[in-house]
Specification:
By secondary structure, the chain is of the alpha/beta class. The chain is built from eight helices and eight strands, in the order E-E-H-H-E-H-E-H-E-H-E-H-E-H-H-E. It has helices at 42-46, 54-63, 84-93, 107-113, 139-152, 173-179, 200-204, 211-222; strands at residues 8-15, 24-29, 70-75, 97-102, 117-122, 157-163, 185-190, 227-230. An eight-stranded mixed sheet has the order 1-2-3-4-5-6-7-8. The radius of gyration is 17 Å and the shape is globular. It binds iron/sulfur cluster. Iron/sulfur cluster (SF4) binds at residues 32, 34-36, 39, 41, 45, 75-77, 103.
Length: 234
């Protein structure tokens, strides 16, 4: 498999934080089928960064056998890459556990990859995904399919909701709760206005929620799921 059809453009060699219960390495895949204006990985999404050879990653993992236990596939959006299931197969042959971070718009790829842990981002109501740069009109179908996979994986999956006032607000939050109903774990994260993002003019107009509003949102979503947690504080 050549690195040109894989799309790895970033690599964090070790993390204790990104794969629950697992010491992992993170691979970042180029490109995305969304253009969230608040995206913190604009270079990974938009630029043609140099590709990293998978063989280099394999050599690293072989040398760290017994220390690194898993690999996080992140991005960008890893699931737009047709070579992803083959990468997962290669990693599992190395006895690596695999976590997939995805926006959930390509559920068929989740099914093909069969990750050991799945983190699915929900960014808005499906009907608002075009405002996030999604070019198709099937967000509702695709997200429902992906959320069914999350539900079927129980504690081995989570939904992450970045709470951006332009997309997640008191008018939409009950419907978001209904969308994720039955999921075991939901994490809410406040929008971070400090990093370089895809659209700096959007972020300048963005007023993040205060703690009180985040707790209110957590209470509402928490009615629909087993566990709802605010990441980075409560
Ligand atoms: S935030 Fe995620 S889904 Fe949105 S553009 Fe960035 S990588 Fe894609």
């Amino acid at each position: 498999m050549s690195s040109s059809n894989i799309g790895i453009v970033g690599w964090q060699k070790c993390t204790l934080l990104d794969f629950p219960g697992t010491i992992a390495t993170i691979l970042f895949f180029k490109g995305c089928n969304l253009r969230c204006p608040y995206c913190h990985n604009p270079d990974v999404v938009l630029k043609n960064l140099p590709l990293i050879d998978l063989q280099e990653v394999i050599t690293f993992l072989n040398k760290r056998s017994g220390k690194i236990e898993g690999v996080v596939l992140s991005g960008g959006e890893p699931a737009i890459h047709t070579g992803l299931p083959e990468i997962v197969r290669v990693l599992k042959n190395l006895s690596m556990k695999v976590k997939l971070d995805t926006n959930g718009l390509t559920p068929g790829m989740i099914t093909l990859c069969k990750p050991d842990y799945l983190a699915l981002d929900i960014k808005a109501l499906p009907k608002h995904y075009n405002a996030l740069g999604y070019a198709k009109n099937d967000a509702e179908i695709k997200l429902k399919e992906s959320l069914d996979v999350v539900r079927s994986m129980g504690n081995q999956a989570e939904v992450r909701i970045t709470v951006v006032p332009q997309f997640i607000n008191m008018e939409t939050i009950e419907e978001i709760g209904t969308l994720v109903q039955g999921v075991k774990k939901v994490f809410l994260q406040n929008v971070n206005v400090a990093h370089p993002v895809i659209d700096s003019s959007f972020i300048k107009k963005c007023l993040p929620y205060n703690n009180e509003a985040m707790i209110k949102i957590k209470e509402i979503v928490g009615r629909y799921v087993n566990e709802c947690t605010i990441r980075g504080g409560d």
